[in-house]
Fold this sequence. Notes:
Order of helices and strands: EEEHHEHEHEHEHEHEHHHEHH
Radius of gyration: 19 Å
Structural class: alpha/beta
CATH superfamily: NADP-dependent oxidoreductase domain
Distance between the termini: 30 Å
Helix content: 25-40%
Largest sheet: 8 strands, parallel
Oligomer: single chain
Number of strands: 10
CATH class: Alpha Beta
Amino acid sequence: MQLRALGSSGIEVSEISLGSWLTYSGGVAREQAQACVRAAFEAGINFIDTANVYGRGAAETLLGEVLAGYDRSSYVLATKVYFQMSDTDRGLSAEQIHKQIDASLGRLRTDYVDLYQCHRYDEDTPLEETMGALTEVLKAGKARHIGFSEWPAERIKASLALPDVARWVSSQPQYSMLWRAPEAEVIPLCEREGISQIVWSPLAQGVLTGKYRPGAPPPPDSRAASESMGVFIGRLTEDRVLEAVQRLEPVAEQAGLTMPQLALAWVLRQGNVASAIMGASRPEQVHANASASGITLSADTLDAVDEALGSVVFR
């Protein structure tokens, strides 16, 4: 497993990281989740990402239980704040940021997180208030660094222009062969500002593994077949998308790679990407995805990817 710098933080994170969005918030049994975390450590993964809203605290609680058996200095832990946690708890006000970091730390059974991220931009709270509160969280030692997820470029610029507040070290966008929207503005801006990408859904929720076939029902043990985990897969399983993904299979074969290796290596070809977050429900998936670290794709392979996917790519 190779490591990459996380922005200007001084922290090095594994190129492949373990997420907990749909899996450890209720989609995967505790024993399976525990086995996946063990597999992650075995594979050299040191970066684990979660959020308070995943299962309304369930993912943080599970990870807190599982990670209690590991030395705190052996892993980099990230969580997030913004989405609704109750009828009255939501957003990035100073009150919410302070309340939610304390609640997250309690569930995670730790005194600090390495990275505290704003899960979305809060249009209802002044930016100055949000950035001031995040700075206070860092000064209190409850988080070491801050990041954001899915913030538009103009809001990132505005936050960077504020005086006397903490600086971002990371951005967490959706990014994959099929979803390339961050390439337009967010990645170039972050490159200039020393902010790394930690990308989510690099396998397009499993679609880029090739497991889904056009015109066929999803495999019974897959995310798309799961009532709890298949809610957001939508457009990705349209026949025209799945047909394009099938055209990637000979590209991967020609490169001597599996489909997940091809998809993850494609994301990691981008130097501004510090880590690709993968979800896993079985330990063998963890090891298979971790094997993508260190793979370099040739120019011919990259061209073949673009040709295979054609117009289904969202830019």
